[in-house]
Every structure is written in structure tokens, then in C-alpha cells.
Amino acid sequence: IQYVPIGGDDEASFWVDDRIRTLGAHRGPVNAVRFLAASRFATCGDDGFVKIWDFGEVVCTAANRITNTGTVEISISPDGERILAVAPGETFILDGDNGQVLFRQPQPAIN
């Protein structure tokens, strides 16, 4: 099985064996799709949610709306245990299993 995550308008798609599976991931654009571990991936979107998905069950296992302004980007720690999420004016570290915010840092305004 090979997984290749693809972000789109409001969907996250991935290639499994010989077909593409598509999930209704977010309300609005999906800004990033990143692997967490062999059977999970995370998405973020303009709806302000960071979501964790399970490939095997093809379901969202955790969703956390961390901002009202949209999540611009996410990055995954090398061990897959943490998610770094960046939104306008804020940076977050989330738990890679349940999506809960572990740390929040406001970013200073640039004048």
C-alpha cells in the first residue's frame, strides 16, 4: 500500500493501491496534508481546524478548531507525536494523537 496525500478545495485525497480515496476534509480550502505515521495523516484548512485522519478506517479521529482565521500551515515532528500549526498571529503545538493544543504562542505584530 502506498499513500500519497493530496489537498484540494475542501477535500483531502490519497492514493491507495490502484485508486484515489477522497474525504470531505474541511469547509473551504485544505492548506496542508502531512503524514503523522504509517496509518495516519493530518490536515489543516481555512476553516481553522487541524484534523487527524486514519487511513485504515478512512475516518477523522480528531478535530480541533484552533483559530477563527484559518490555519496556514502544519508541520509534523520527526517522531510523529507533535504537530506545529501556524495561523495568522499565532503558533500552536498540538498532540499528534488527539489534536489537543499543548502550547500556544502569540506572534508579535509587525509594523
Largest sheet: 4 strands, antiparallel
Q: Percentage of helical residues?
A: under 10%
Strand order of the largest sheet: 4-5-6-7
Our count of helices gives 0
Distance between the termini: 49 Å
- Backbone structural class: mainly beta
Please indicate the percent range of residues in DSSP E strands (runs of 2 or more): over 45%
Order of helices and strands: EEEEEEEEEEE
Determine the mean pLDDT: 80
Low-confidence stretches: none
Q: How much is the radius of gyration in Å?
A: 14 Å
E-strand count? 11
Q: Which shape, going by the Cα principal axes? A: globular
Helices and strands, with pairings:
Layout: E1 5-7, E2 11-16, E3 19-24, E4 30-37, E5 40-45, E6 49-54, E7 59-65, E8 73-76, E9 82-87, E10 90-95, E11 101-106
What can you tell me about this protein's structure?
By secondary structure, this protein is an all-beta fold. Helices cover 0% and strands 58% of the residues. The strands form three sheets. A four-stranded antiparallel sheet has the order 4-5-6-7, with no helix packed on it. A four-stranded antiparallel sheet has the order 8-9-10-11, with no helix packed on it. A hairpin with a 3-residue loop joins strand 1 (5-7) and strand 2 (11-16). The mean pLDDT is 80.
